[in-house]
Amino acid sequence: MEQRNILVTGGAGFIGANFVHYWLAQYPQDKVIVLDALTYAGNKANLDIVANNSNMTFVHGNICDTALIESLIDTHQLNTIVHFAAESHVDRSITEPDAFIETNILGTYSLLKAAKKKWIDEPKAQGKPTPEHRFHHVSTDEVYGTLNATDPAFTEETAYAPNSPYSASKAASDHLVRAYHHTYGLEVTTSNCSNNYGYISLPRKTDPVNCYQHP
Ligand SMILES: NC(=O)c1ccc[n+]([C@@H]2O[C@H](COP(=O)([O-])OP(=O)(O)OC[C@H]3O[C@@H](n4cnc5c(N)ncnc54)[C@H](O)[C@@H]3O)[C@@H](O)[C@H]2O)c1
After folding, report:
1. Which domains does the chain have, with CATH numbers?
2. Closest Cα to atom 25, ligand 1: which residue?
3. Which atom of ligand 1 is nearest to the CA of 12?
4. What is the pLDDT of residues 160-207, one digit of tens each?
5. What is the pTM of this model?
6. Burial of 22 (0-12, 13-18, 19+ CB in 10 A)
7. Is 141 considered catalytic here?
8. Residue 190: in which H helix or E strand, if any?
């Protein structure tokens, strides 16, 4: 793609904000639209470094709002979605799973629905070819279950075995993303990374002492 107009969901969170910083520095010709609901995990200040970059637009909104996603795709001529937004704190998913089902499953479904409508259905109805597009879904290695110290590492061939409401909700979203490729031809990729830590990560994710503290 010559120029990417990217919707970055969850771009005010830990990994999403690092991605936005990286992308704008590496690809200054691209436009980045950050969509974030600013839950307890999101912090707009994570984007301060790029706040004055004219190629970055921040939108305060929810990925479950399909009409908003559709209008963002139209307004900004989006051809790429990089989907970080999630409820991501495993311990919280055990005490308060509702938000995990809503954001991680229904939110991902909402994005897929909007992308399919704008990139596949509408061009087809107008007799136009499907435009070049990409839906990248950021998932977790936790969909593969839990490793003991002597177990071999997970691979992409490992069977899914989620063990928490968090990982189950991410596994469900992975399956929806896969199905949208196989059923409708949406161009998708999914990454299943393990735990990240670093610049602007929340202490509760890296410091075991803080694991059970609500912010
Ligand atoms: N942090 C890790 O170590 C790790 C490891 C593997 C996978 N992941 C995955 O990477 C992604 C990003 O993780 P993170 O650690 O940066 O998460 P985070 O909790 O720091 O950030 C999540 C962001 O999503 C936003 N958000 C939540 N619900 C939303 C909604 N309904 N609509 C719009 N925005 C919403 C929050 O406001 C926040 O800014 C997640 O999908 C997570 O499952 C993270």
Report:
1. 5-210 (3.40.50.720)
2. 10
3. 39
4. 999 999 999 999 999 999 999 999 999 999 999 999 988 877 655 554
5. 0.94
6. exposed
7. yes
8. strand 188-193
